[in-house]
Predict the structure.
Amino acid sequence: MNKFKKLAEQRAAYEQEMQEILDKAESEERAITEEESTKFDELEGKIKDIDRTIKAEERARDLKLNVLDDKKKEELRAEEKETQEERAFENYIRGVISEERASNLAASDNGAVIPSSIANKIIKKVVEICPIYQMATRYNVNGILSIPYYDESTTAITMAYATEFTELESNSGKFKSIELKGFLAGALSKISKSLVNNSQFDIVNFVINQMSENIAKWIENELLNGTSQKIEGISQCKQVVTAASSTSITADEIIDLQETVPDVFQPGCIWIMNKATRTAIRKLKDSDGDYILQKDMSAKWGYRLFGADVYCSDNMPKMEAGKTAIVYGDMSGLAVKVSEDMNIEVLRERFATEHAIGVVGWMELDSKIENEQKIAVLKMKSAG
């Protein structure tokens, strides 16, 4: 554990003890006893010792900087800044007043905007736990983004035999574009004050993990299923294989789906499906009586189907009438535009009556398929 973080946790614990002494005397409508006063002074002395230790560590760091090259100095400064921001973030959640907090947190209408180092850790975690977002082509830009592509669906550049002194006929495709805008979305997590008041609890990593999981789940759902008039994601995929049944899938249909994507893109392809769909596919056998889906220790998620890794997502629909049961393809064909870096705020007062603290994350994004050849879907037959 970082020594600054450990000292900050000890300081917060001592401050909590001091406050408990005062709260007890106030609830009993009396002055603090001599024993309580001695304990209070002892805790105050420990806090002063910690403050002196932190300042001494900072002076030692400054001396160390004098003998380091510029690159090492920048790395050390960046590490120290991140540590200070984490301490300020933790202190703010726990209600601890410190000089660091004032200098590292920007005030908002009903809370505080979290330093970029915390937001960046959340974003990094989102990328780690959401493979579709990780594999997609991401554009971090503001405003409307137009991505051009070459369309040969009606006409294409062709080469043919020619006769001397005879005009060649000109054929060409057309340049078109997809447009990505920005849709604002927020994720709210509530943290129990009982956890906040536990000085031994790693509140910073808890918030990072909680926010990352909530945000990743929402992003993955939008990328896979989209929302009308909002983020489109894969929902408008043009390469579609329709199952003959509304409740089951055959091995031949899975092969047809895989063959829809050109060979040049096959190396980067994965299967995406609900766990219930994977269970059904595990029961399918080939003509030799062997199961077509096997566990594979070398696969990213433990299973490989016809040479491609299988990823299960709770956001994928099950095998139900008219639903998209399987997505297959190279996810780099999906464009995701993030037009605003994630903005994280802590709301200390808003949920006070629930004995909780709110952490809300805001981001602005959009997504569409930018290369239709890379992605295909299998839809179940519609009912009736």
